[in-house]
Amino acid sequence: MCSSDLISESLIGHGLREYGREEFILATKSMKRDYYGIFEELEISLENLGTSYIDLFQFHNVRSFEQLEILMGNNGGLKAIKEAQAKGLIREIGITSHAPEILDKAMDTGEFSTIQCPYNPVERQGEKVFEKANKLDIGVIIMKPLAGGAIRNAELSLKFIVNNPNINVAIPGMDSIEQVIANAKIGQNVQALTEDEKAIILKEAEELGTEF
């Protein structure tokens, strides 16, 4: 777990103490793949967040089929998290990756409640996987909804995403209260893109290309 994650969890933990744990759905993640490493990071997360349970624990950035195999092996992290789930420390298990084909294989195992993948008007390679997830009743979380900040029309990009019926949650980065409010409004009052808006955001996507 990197230092920024530790700081973020500590700050969120402070907020939870102020406003009440039950008001939030709490998710965290780990890049560990082994049994003992996952238990170690889970313990750190629970302490930093000041909570007795986590709603969604995600195996983060699984980059290859080999990593997925390790994760799901006899001494892998999935075994650890399922044990934690049986104890009530975890409610749901998720997986994240930049590679849709890895998420596709992970879904076939029946072990995951959510997947997380980059998606925006530029990077649309996950659309077929999202359709499959919807049919399997697996939640779809979108990271990089603004292509890592490359997309200028943030509102249109988010509108593009939330209008996809196979997507449940988008997680844009925010550094001000104003951004939190503006982004939340898009999700609370979902409106279809007009033809003019669609033309604007797709033109920007075309200009950006597909590589970052």
Q: Would you mind describing this structure in some detail?
A:
48% of the residues lie in helices and 14% in strands. The protein is α/β, with parallel strands linked by helices. The longest helix is centred in the N-terminal third of the chain and has 17 residues, at 3-19. It starts with a helix and ends with a helix.
Class from helix and strand fractions: alpha/beta
For the biggest sheet, the summary is: 6 strands, parallel
Mean pLDDT: 93
Count of DSSP H/I helices: 9
User: What would the principal axes of the Cα set say about the shape?
Assistant: globular
**Which series of helices and strands comes N to C?**
HEHEHHEHEHEHEHH
The share of residues in extended strands comes to: 5-15%
Distance between the termini: 24 Å
Low-confidence stretches: none
The amount of helix comes to: 40-55%
Radius of gyration: 18 Å
Widest β-sheet, arrangement of strands: 1-2-3-4-5-6
Count of beta strands: 6
Topology record:
Layout: H1 3-19, E1 27-30, H2 35-49, E2 54-59, H3 65-71, H4 77-86, E3 90-96, H5 100-108, E4 114-118, H6 127-135, E5 139-143, H7 154-162, E6 169-170, H8 177-188, H9 195-208
